[in-house]
Amino acid sequence: MSSDADIAAPWYVYLLECRDGSLYTGITTDVARRYAQHLAGKGARYTRSRPPVRLLGQFPHPDRASASRAEHAIKQLRPEQKRALCAGA
């Protein structure tokens, strides 16, 4: 069952480029807030050890379920495919 927050706010899949050149993919309802958390070391464990240097892209989805499916699909891509996706290719 969906909560009001799931229905009211769109969800986003976002990709970050980390200091070591790796890419991080996540989902959130507020990309700016989540990015700030990553920068402050309060985000995912992955970005605590590999701080993000920039937001590569963000993609809106109508609900958490579709954002989670998209996140999983993106995580299966090779890094160059993720970069191409963010570049709009």
Automatic annotation (TrEMBL):
It holds the Pfam family GIY-YIG. Residues 9-84 form the GIY-YIG domain. PROSITE patterns: GIY_YIG. Gene3D superfamilies: GIY-YIG endonuclease. SUPFAM superfamilies: GIY-YIG endonuclease. CDD domains: GIY-YIG_UPF0213. InterPro entries: GIY-YIG_endonuc, GIY-YIG_endonuc_sf, UPF0213_domain. Belongs to the UPF0213 family. This is GIY-YIG nuclease family protein. It comes from Lysobacter soli.
